[in-house]
Amino acid sequence: MQIPNIALSVRQPWAWAIIHAGKDIENRSTYAVTKGGFEPKRICIHASKGMTKDEYEAARDFMATLDVECPRPDDLIRGAIIGMVTVTAVVNDHSSPWFFGPRGLVLTDPVAIEPIPASGALGYFKWQETGAPTDPLPWMINWPPEKQKPTQPKPLPLLGEA
Q1: Is the peptide bond before 157 cis (omega within 30 degrees of 0)?
Q2: Tens of pLDDT along 32-75?
Q3: Which residue, among 125, 121, 45, has the nearest Cα to 77 in the 3D structure?
Q4: CB distance 41 to 84 below 8 Å
Q5: Residue 59: phi, psi to the nearest 5?
Q6: What residues contact 104, with CB distance under 8 A and at least 6 apart?
Q7: 116 - beta bridge partners?
Q8: Quick one: which of 39, 23, 17 has its CA closest to 90?
Q9: Residue partners of 158: CB distance under 8 A and separation at least 6
Q10: Nearest CA-CA partner of 83 in 141, 10, 28
Q11: Other residues' Cβ atoms within 10 Å of the Cβ of residue 15
């Protein structure tokens, strides 16, 4: 299998969704599309190193509205090429539930590959293999957060007690 030498860096868990969950649009700003030189072609998807807890939770919650179960944050590969797709068009509007614009790259034919460690960059970039994928952060390893762990409610005071 021929692996393209051009990649697009996407934050997790969106990169995972492109390769494994049917995310057929990669949303970008108009500026990013204009300056990024985006055009239809076969590319690699690079899972970027960055992912905050808030970003993860927002993406996970959005995916749940589509009946997509997002993996745990410490199971998501970061800092590596994780697959390939074909960019078929750049659009201003699309019927896909994954489109929220203002521009979108239409993606088809996702193929997962064994992760290849690589550094990312903005726009399309020529990637090269580097060290190792990024290790999970402490909040990722300790998922789910304490607020989601079951707790025993405090007993209510009896009448006459303060």
Answers
A1: no
A2: 777 767 788 899 999 999 999 999 999 999 999 999 999 999 99
A3: 45
A4: no
A5: -65, -45
A6: 25, 26, 27, 28, 90, 91, 92, 94, 96
A7: 81
A8: 39
A9: none
A10: 10
A11: 26
What amino acid occupies position 148?
Answer: Q
Helix (H) or strand (E) holding 21: none
Name residue 53's amino acid.
K
Q: Return d(Cα 32, Cα 105) in angstroms, integer.
A: 11
Please give the angle made by the CA atoms of 143, 137 and 15, to the nearest 5 degrees. 85
Query: Helical H runs in the chain?
Result: 14-20, 30-36, 53-65, 138-141
What is the Cα–Cα distance from 108 to 89, expressed in whole angstroms?
10
- Tokens for 145, please give them: 């957060």
Amino acid at 42: R
Joined together, the tokens standing for residue 38 give 């985006």
Q: Could you state, in order of their start, the residue ranges of all structural domains in the chain?
A: 6-145
pLDDT tens-digit readout, 106-142: 999 999 999 999 999 888 899 999 988 889 989 999 9
